[in-house]
Amino acid sequence: MSKEKTEADDIGDSGIAQRLAKVEPVDNRRRLRHDNAFRILCVGIATVSVLVLIALLTSIIVQGIPSLSWVLLSGTPEPEPTEAGMFPALMGTIWICSLCALITLPVGVATAVLLEEFKPRTKVAAWFYSVIQLNISNLAGVPSVVYGILGLTAFVSMFSLFGNAKQPGAAVWEVGATYYDQFSNVGSDPFLTMGQEVDERYFLVPVEKRSDDPTVPTEGMVAFENRGDGLVPAEVHVVDAMAEMPTDPEALATSIDSLAVPGRISEKAWYYFQLPFGRGVLAGALTLMLVILPVIIISTQEALRAVPSSLRDGALGIGATPWQVVWNVTLPSAIPGIMTGSILAMSRAVGETAPILIIAGIVYIRNAPQHLMDSYTVMPLQIYNWTSRPQDEFHSLAAGGIIILLGILLSFNAIAVMIRHRMQKPLS
Amino acid sequence: MKLRSLASVAPALLASFLLTNSLSAQNTSLLGKVEIDGSSTVYPISEAAASGFTKDFPNVKVNVGVSGTGGGFKRFTIGQTDISDASRPIKAKEFSAAKDSGIRFYELPVAYDGLTLVVHKSNDWVDHLTVDEIKKIFTTEGAAKTWAEVRQGWPKNPIKIFAPGTDSGTFDYFKEVVAGEGSLRWDMSTSEDDNVLVTGVSGSPNAIGFFGVAYYEENKDKLKSVAIVNPELNEPVSPTAQTIENGTYAPFSRPLFIYVNAQSFRRPEVKRFVAYYLLKAPELASKTGYVALPKTVYAQAMNHCRGGKVGTHYLTDEMEKRSGPVTELYTPATLVD
Questions:
Q1: Domain boundary among B246, B265, B293
Q2: How far is A14 from chain B (nearest CA, A)?
Q3: For chain B, what is the domain count?
Q4: Is the confidence at residue B144, as pLDDT, over 90?
Q5: Torsion angle, CA of A159/A164/A168/A172, rounded to 10 degrees?
Q6: The domain spanning residue B186 has which CATH number?
Q7: Domain residues for B200?
Q8: Which residues of chain B are within 8 Å of residue A228 when distances are taken between CB atoms?
Q9: What superfamily in CATH does domain A70-161+278-423 come from?
Q10: How many CB pairs under 8 A join A and B?
Q11: What does the pLDDT average to over A233-259?
Q12: Above 0.85 for ipTM, yes or no?
């Protein structure tokens, strides 16, 4: 296509341009050339960013597709790349992100509603509002590692408020834990048996409190044993440390040394809760809340501002209270905008690694979280760990993990987009 | 149990060996949790140990973190973890921190790592380096800008240096051997991720870098390892499993450790895990790209656990650093608690 032709087409498209062309033909051609050049520049820049994205995605997909398997999705992390999976990390990510969304959305939207819909009436209030606004804008630019460190003090150890300065994060107050003293049977000391197979039995003696003294083995004490499907009562005997050990294998298996020192362990119920929070799921979700709260507040504010004031005025005019206006008029019409902001914020939370690395710090874990205080890891951390291994097989596992992470992200977004479409109504 | 000697236990043990029939299967009766954190160099070995152990004892939860040797000790010395992975011995500062919070520990070496110096595949001039030449390249006093400054006859190309992050035990160890009390130069490209170092060195013909032998083994096709002149033998030695184990690859072969909290060690699940770790260490070490220690060292480590011998071998009573090959240093005589 020749240059003149394009220009002619453009002029033909717009009546104003045509009229201008008649008045000042030379100058106009220059203007249109600039316009064209700018358009090409914009398209070029957009193409570059799309190309980079395509290149990234293809390299990940090419590298990751072969390692995508059921094992990767449902398995535990293993040193053998072929057996390794990321189920605990997947569950960790789901726990962290759902909790984070549950906490952040109400707080974020409420803050935005306060700032936008309930304008300050006194000078002091106005000053207070501007401090909040300034803080939020600044917080949006803070690197997420800083939030990790903040979360460590604020949530994990709770500023050592509970007198736990020596052991930050250790439980001071808790509910839902049962404590046991664990004894091993006599003759199964692993440093004496040296890998030989012996009848290893372990017995649990319930104790009242965490701080109780270690149980002293006594004949006839209440003991349990875990037999695969839960605790069953077990019969234990105590043999004097100075006396000869029984040689009967049956007696040996159920005997405890009279000087044996037990180890204290705990079983935690699904509702287990402790203060301070420790390095659990809740502390992680709260830290991520700090990271994404500014994003949610600012985007909700924008969405609220975009609601035409005629709607508010109309509602107020027919006698609605400010609360009724917010709940029945402003919020419903702002939901599409709020959802868009939340999508962006949650996507950021899903991919966040740095604060979690500081807060959780665990890379190898075989269990999905069972309660709010349980240890966990998240997918970005697992992926990071695999990419830093020397073996190439782990690198392709990491690529597979990225594909799964992208899948989760897209499905999160899809749900939000669906909600947005449902709620979208013409405002005028 | 301490009162019983092995001899008096023997008949009972024999009886229990005879008893075992179906016990190669899983043991579900052991419960509990083992918390590990520390060096990313030791992590693969700990991960392999944790994975193997939980196959035998499925109800024990073993969590492993990678906070770096220093970060791991920070948590270990206030009692947050049961076991700390370390790619260097404990420092005096960390030792006294542990002391302050009443924590005693077992120091158990688990494998050898050979710090490997690597250059670009097409680099045809470097084939071995002496420790003095390494000093010229890496320290602030040496600060060689070009290869010609390192040895006469080498090209006048600028040297590009890639090194592990300053928080890693690998960096600490290298610094101690090469710079001693001095410091390594600041104008190196550092990264916590050793794969970045591999990419860096393999992308520049004038580059030199260093990291654990496992990363070199996986990238042999992209990199060339540099033989180091053994200061005592006065001849260049390449890092191989053999030279690392017999100690001729000096001074860059180093032991890796786990530190076990003595209080936690009383818990049956921790004790059982440590026993598993030490028993399987030779196998796990070679599987993860490291080199097994001599059998005598593992036996000594077991003896320490058995006899309750806590403390470090790498500090003197005056809290001065003590150094030497692990085979000589790791004896009850040098224990300081």
A1: B246
A2: 54
A3: 2
A4: no
A5: -100
A6: 3.40.190.10
A7: 116-246
A8: 28
A9: MetI-like (1.10.3720.10)
A10: 191
A11: 82
A12: no
Q: To the nearest whole angstrom, how far is the Cα of B143 from the nearest Cα of chain A?
A: 29
pLDDT for residue A296: 94
Question: What does the domain layout of chain A look like in residue ranges?
Answer: 2-64, 70-161+278-423, 173-272
Interface touch B17/A260, C-beta < 8 Å: no
The pTM score is 0.85
Question: What residues of B are in contact with residue A165 (Cβ under 8 Å)?
Answer: none
> Looking at per-residue confidence, does A188 or A70 come out higher?
A70
Residues of A in contact with B288 (CB under 8 A): 79
pLDDT score recorded for residue A22: 61
Q: Among A188, A203, A388, select the one facing B193 at the smallest CB separation.
A: A388
User: Which residue has better confidence, A171 or B275?
Assistant: B275
* pLDDT band, very low/low/confident/very high, at A20 (cuts 50, 70, 90): low
Q: Point out the domain boundary residue: B227, B246, B265.
A: B246
- Choose among A170, A197, A267: nearest Cβ to B17: A197
Q: Which of A184-193, A227-236, B32-41 holds the top average pLDDT?
A: B32-41
Same domain membership, residue B292 and residue B328: yes
Give A-chain residues touching B42 at CB under 8 angstroms. Answer: none
Are B108 and B151 contained in the same domain? no
| pLDDT score, position A271 | 93
